Amino acid sequence: MSQPQQLLESVFREEYGRIIATLIRLSNSFDLAEEALQEAFATAVHSWTEQGPPNNPGAWLTTVAHRKLVDAVRREKTRTDKHNELEFETQRLQPAVEIELMEDAVEYPDDRLKLIFTCCHPSLTQETRVALTLRTLGGLTTGEIARAFLIPEATLAQRLVRAKNKIRHAGIPYEVPPVELLKQRLASVQAVIYLIFNEGYSSSAGEDLVRGDLCAEAIRLGRVLAKLSPDEPENVGLLALMLLQDSRRHARIDADGQLVTLEEQDRLLWDEREINEGLELTEKALRQGRAGPYQLQAAIAALHAEAKSAAETDWSQIAALYRELLRINSSPIIALNHAAAVAMAEGPEVGLELIEAVGDSGKLDNYHLFHASRADLLRRLGRNSEARLAYERAIGLTTNQVEKEYIRKRIAEMRAR
After folding, report:
1. Nearest partner of 281 among 266, 292, 295, 267, judged by Cα
2. I want to staple 312 with a disulfide (CB 3.0 to 4.6 A). Which of 191, 263, 307, 379 is the partner?
3. Residues contacting residue 184 through CB under 8 Å, at least 6 positions apart
4. CA within 13 Å, CB half, 189
5. DSSP structural state of residue 104
């Protein structure tokens, strides 16, 4: 891959959400914004290869995409022969000053928080709100989001089209709602931010396990949300949870790029600054006496962070917190995590029994971590033939190459015994 292409890929990861949010505000259209940005990236591939990259790649792309919007509006207005509207719309879309050098582009306001609340409007379904924001703000592919939701890609694609149409036809405002309306949208906004973080912390596909840009973006949005509504403890809990999990990010991969499990990680590599901030925020949120899912998960992450070694981890307390979390949210994935914690606290036999019970519903049949967790307990119990089958099932469902390699390593270790 050439240097301009590498730079463009990096800018895509880091700047996509910021640029697309600006373009949606300017055009009031998800489709026009996405098309304009795609055209800008296509232009960059040629221009940066021929002339070298600009001083400010993000501003360059924003400016070019902005101009593509103006051109698109002009073409559309010309086709409908509405010259007066063309003049008004073109003026509205153009920046206040003429831009001679792309790298010296005008500063655009950060519209990402507005975009999240637009995507999380109450008239959209919960899953659609989350998916639409991940697609537009996070720049995730439809396939990546579908895997996060455990649904077919085609189903999600249809939901995204319907959501964009509904926003356009209903005239849903592009704004952060007033304080009295914030609570009804906060749950969706929190879910969006956490799913962006999870996609960064454990990428659903590709050669890399971790996408640090997405982790950083989710934490940044979490800070903005906590600042916007500081009296909501779940906002603080969400930020604490992400910081505590992110503190382990650099220990999750070894020097050879191989996955390192939590119990095998070098805890000296954990980020002490993030841990301290996360612990402080967890205590701050819980003191308000309104514990919610993110606060409970932050408390679980805090117990891991406070343990000086894997052997000192308070698994009984973690299992108890997962039981409380299950009472609030009976998600099969939470039930799986509870079973894994019980296995560490009470032994693999008890944990395997719980995991088998979770699997009886069939809801996790296509979730690779269910099969990997089950395989791990079977391996610990010496039931290697069953463990291999479960590991192979997990490999078939895993699209991340680092995770695939880790599972293959486990299978090889069992065969060598």
Report:
1. 295
2. 307
3. 122
4. 30
5. G
318 has a pLDDT exceeding 50 = yes
DSSP bridge partners of 400: 206
Question: 3-state DSSP call for residue 199?
Answer: helix
Domain ranges of the chain: 3-104, 111-172+179-229, 232-310
**124, 126, 128, 130: CA torsion to nearest 10:** 120
- The residue behind tokens 């906002």 is 235
**With the CA atoms of 35, 37, 40 and 45 taken in that order, what torsion angle do they form, in degrees rounded to the nearest 10?**
-100
Q: Which of 177-181, 192-196, 250-254 has the lowest mean pLDDT?
A: 177-181
318's CB contacts (< 8 A; 6+ apart) are 300, 303, 304, 341, 344, 345
% of the chain beyond a pLDDT of 70:
88
Contacts of 343 (CB under 8 A, 6+ apart): 350, 351, 352, 354, 355, 377
* Cα-Cα-Cα-Cα dihedral sign, residues 233, 221, 248, 371: positive
Separation of alpha carbons 112 and 223, rounded Å: 13
Taking a C-beta distance cutoff of 8 angstroms, is the pair 128, 115 a contact?
Answer: no
- The single residue listed with the structure tokens 């990680």 is 265
Nearest to 212 by CA among 223, 196, 224, 228: 196
Largest Cα separation within the chain, whole Å, is: 79
Question: What pairs with residue 253 in β-bridges?
Answer: 259
The candidate with the shortest Cα–Cα distance to 165, out of 37, 27, 29, is: 29
Verdict on whether the full-model pTM lies above 0.90:
no
- Confirm if 242 and 197 have CB atoms less than 8 A apart: yes
